[in-house]
Design a protein that fits this description.
CATH architecture of chain A: 2-Layer Sandwich
Structural class of chain A: alpha+beta
Largest sheet of chain B: 6 strands, mixed
Largest sheet of chain A: 5 strands, antiparallel
Number of domains of chain B: 1
Oligomer: heterodimer
Number of helices of chain B: 4
CATH architecture of chain B: 2-Layer Sandwich
CATH class of chain A: Alpha Beta
Number of strands of chain B: 6
Helix content of chain A: 40-55%
Strand content of chain B: 35-45%
Helix content of chain B: 25-40%
Structural class of chain B: alpha/beta
Shape of chain A: globular
Shape of chain B: globular
Radius of gyration of chain A: 16 Å
CATH class of chain B: Alpha Beta
Radius of gyration of chain B: 14 Å
CATH superfamily of chain B: STAS domain
Strand order of the largest sheet of chain A: 1-2-3-5-4
Strand content of chain A: 15-25%
CATH superfamily of chain A: Histidine kinase-like ATPase, C-terminal domain
Distance between the termini of chain A: 19 Å
Strand order of the largest sheet of chain B: 1-2-3-4-5-6
């Protein structure tokens, strides 16, 4: 009989490419988030699969909303093993968009107190009812993911990862 | 127990999120269930919020219970509506507040206290969290 601990050593990797981006009209981020939650949850504890759901939902939604070219591709890559959960999302972006995301991630990564940053950002944005702008901070502060980004013209890549030591 | 107000979000013809406000003697129970994934939850929940604002002053309530156990997912656009509902209720009703939440859920553990404005000492003093092992 396989134990839960053994199940949580399973290596899984998935990759989805969607093109053209303009054909994405439904709740793609929700579909991918929920499906991955179920799939990862079949091997790993729900605390891990729920993290994946939230990260996939936020990053894919960002990619769909901010993608710079309707003819381009959106890619989601998911990799999990007993040590690490990595989620990477790629979408077409202008260099100026990349610089903005890079600055935002640098600001998150250099914040001394992520909870404080999340609290202040929520309160600040709530005043003006601003949509968006919370997702990446949330992934770092709430879900404890480490974020990074790079640009491979014309594609912006956002990488998020979390060590699973102690979680699974 | 009586149902005071009910709000829901429909997506693709299906109810994906609901919140119910019930009164049981002096206890107000606000429960949340489902998922908030849409971009603009106000479109669906504004009326619920205004009904609560109108009805609550007529009730004799001395305790509040927020039940988040059945709330599976809340995107960042859902944060403001949770804040509006909880702020309006906490501001208009005194007394102790119980918050039922899931132990293993990151957003309920990390972000929900921020949305409830627990950094305010007078609110923190009133709130007790009850943890449930739901996931």
């Amino acid at each position: 009989m396989i134990t839960q601990e053994e199940l949580a050593t399973t290596s899984i990797s998935m990759r989805y490419d969607f093109s053209p981006k303009r054909n994405i009209i439904g709740d793609l981020s929700g579909l991918l988030g929920n499906f991955s939650d179920e799939l990862i949850g079949a091997f790993y504890p729900r605390t891990v699969s729920k993290k994946a759901n939230i990260v996939i939902t936020e990053l894919v939604n960002n990619a769909v909303v901010n993608s710079a070219d309707g003819d381009s591709k959106i890619t989601l890559e998911i990799m999990i093993d007993e040590h690490l959960l990595r989620i990477r999302v790629t979408n077409a972006a202008k260099r100026s968009q990349y610089r903005k995301v890079k600055d935002h991630i640098q600001m998150i990564n250099s914040a001394g107190d992520l909870r404080q940053l999340l609290a202040e950002t929520i309160r600040e944005r709530r005043k003006d009812r601003l949509r968006g702008g919370l997702g990446l901070i949330r992934l770092a502060a709430e879900n404890k993911f480490t974020l990074s980004t790079h640009y491979k013209a014309p594609y912006l890549v956002i990488d998020s990862q979390i060590g699973l030591g102690g979680l699974s | 127990m009586k149902v005071l107000a009910f709000g829901e979000i429909m997506d693709g013809g299906t109810s994906v999120f609901s919140s119910v406000a019930k009164v049981d003697a002096d206890l107000l129970i606000i429960s949340f269930g489902g998922s908030i994934r849409i971009d603009n939850p106000y479109r669906y929940l504004e009326q619920y919020l205004s009904e609560l604002e109108q009805l609550l002053p007529h009730e004799k309530i001395g305790r509040i219970e927020f039940d988040f156990k059945e709330l599976d997912f809340c995107n960042s656009n859902g944060f403001y509506i949770i804040m509006d509902i909880s702020e309006m209720i906490i501001g208009s009703i005194g007394g102790p507040i119980t918050v039922k939440r899931l132990k293993g859920d990151d957003w309920q553990q990390e972000t929900l206290p921020i949305l409830l404005n627990i950094d305010e000492p007078e609110i923190e003093d009133r709130i007790t969290f009850e943890e449930f092992a739901g996931i």
